[in-house]
Amino acid sequence: MQKKPGPPLSRGRAVGSGVGAAILLLLLLLTLATSKSGDPGLYPAKPGDGVAIFLVDNGFHTDLVLPRDAILRDNGNLADAAEGTTADPWIMVGWGDERFYRATSPWQDRIPDGLAAAIGGRPTVVHLEGVWERPDLAWKSGLHRIVLSHAGLTALLQRADKALLPSESGGLIPVAHLPNEGFYRSGEPFSLFHLCNHWTGELLNAGGLPVTPVLDTLPAGLVLDLRVRARVKG
């Protein structure tokens, strides 16, 4: 016996499907429109010109771990901050909303504050913390090794220098100091469209890597972006 045809797709379901498709198309177009190319003169590093840095991913925030000696050689704002923070051979560098960044309560309790930070307009900081040993020995997970050229690392450091807000006297503005750790005032705005992981991606892009800001909103997307477009294997 021939089956009767099912009920026609309701107008509501049809409209919903159309809206969903439009949203996906908009996200795709936004992803493509904001995609940033790399600099083949800086990345990938040529044989014999490589220097390793590390991306640390804790699931919702990313930092870069950089060699202290390279930071000091750059002799920029980040070098001044490093000298005043730690003598460890590696330094973890990150950026974000000051209030959310410095809070120590469980992240689940800070969700409302995180949403308030995403609206924008609040003070931001650059965070430095010393790492006592090679990062791939200090972390067992959430670590990704990236090999830059020396020129690429210099460009990355110069981009990081710009995030540190100078005082009227020309020095840095310390916000808080802890043992082996420091927060310094930044002049860059934090919002839903410029989150901490976007900032990490901007530094890597300055170092020559291609990035896709829409994907880079979350650490998992940033890591996927680096693996697909920059061929990062770590």
Summarize the structure in words.
- This protein has helices at residues 11-34, 68-74, 77-83, 98-102, 111-119, 135-138, 150-163, 196-206, 219-229; strands at 50-57, 62-67, 90-97, 124-131, 143-149, 174-178, 181-186.
- The mean pLDDT is 88.
- The N and C termini lie far apart (59 Å).
- Helix 7 (150-163) packs across helix 8.
- The protein has 234 residues and is an alpha+beta fold.
- A 7-stranded antiparallel sheet has the order 5-1-2-3-4-7-6.
- It is globular and about 40 Å long.
- Helices cover 39% and strands 21% of the residues.
Question: How is this structure best summarized?
Answer:
With 234 residues, the protein is α+β, with helices and mostly antiparallel strands. It has nine helices and seven strands; from the N terminus they run αββααβααβαβαββαα. A hairpin with a 4-residue loop joins strand 1 and strand 2.
SSE layout:
Layout: H1 11-34, E1 50-57, E2 62-67, H2 68-74, H3 77-83, E3 90-97, H4 98-102, H5 111-119, E4 124-131, H6 135-138, E5 143-149, H7 150-163, E6 174-178, E7 181-186, H8 196-206, H9 219-229
Antiparallel strand pairs: 1-2, 1-5, 2-3, 3-4, 4-7, 6-7
Helix pairs in contact: 2-3, 7-8
Helix and strand element order: HEEHHEHHEHEHEEHH
* Low-pLDDT segments: none
Helix percent reads 25-40%
Number of E-type strands: 7
What are the salient characteristics of this protein?
single chain, 234 residues, alpha+beta, 7-stranded antiparallel β-sheet, 7 strands, 39% helix, 21% strand, globular
